[in-house]
Amino acid sequence: MPRLSVWMVRFSLIYLGIGMTIGGMMLWNKGIFISVDLWRLLPYHIELMLFGWVMQLVMGVAFWIVPRYTTPPRYGKTHRAWIAFAMFNIGLWLVLIQHTWLILVGRVLMLLAVVLFVVYLFPRLKPYGE
Amino acid sequence: MPTLTRYHIKMGLMYFLLSLFMGVILVAQPIFNLSIDVWTLRPVFFHFLVVGWITQIIIGVAHWMFPKRSKEQPRGNLVLGWMVFICLNIGLVFRGFAEPLFFIYPESIWGWTLVLSAVLQVVAGWLFVFNIWGRVKER
Ligand code: HEM
Question: E strands within chain B?
């Protein structure tokens, strides 16, 4: 597993743990009521689960598993993917702050991160050995 | 493919089927004037899809495909691996029936079943993270 995938997967695992814990708190609260405030956690749960966990894991595994180039550098222009990783996570944190403007900035950062990731990954999508 | 992976994927496929079945019932509710109680299935429908199917097959395939931890324990601690499988699935099945039941018959037994379901799933999540962590590495 290349280094960037290691970091993406590590981040996604941490988000999985935190996101599930938040989900568990809300579910507990549904069964045995603790506080109505726990419902405020729902947007964090959704964000951590869908983007932090699932999307980032898929990106990390894609970076690892799709065909590499036959000549070095075998992973191509990796700095693009690294910047995408950084922007994606910073964007995610900004969204998690849950302030109108920061959500917008965060979403735009995540969008740009994915643009960069797509630009990076597209040329790697080819038959093995080409 | 390791046995544990097969179990994860087979269970995952069952949740996938069940959740889409619930999805059909949900959209059919207003059309056929089915009981409004059907809507208590909505969170279950969602989580059978994202926990039972997506997260579960990721867990199963990671167990199979991630770099080997060591010669002695190539796939990490197998007992922990099975505990993840058991906690996740018992937790989710409990949610599957207790969440709708609790809303239709608000008795504390179903409330506590939901609490148990929550704890089991959270335990499964962290156990998985803990067990797979050492396999997330450069080869
Ligand atoms: C420990 C496991 C989990 C627990 C206990 C849990 C619990 C919950 C609860 C209590 C809600 C609020 C449901 C409601 O509207 O009544 C919720 C919503 C949601 N969860 Fe989870 N969750 C878990 C895992 C996940 C995972 C792994 C994902 C995605 C990959 C996910 C995605 C969502 C989404 C998208 C919603 C919003 C659904 C809606 O709008 O109704 N959850 N979760």
Answer: none
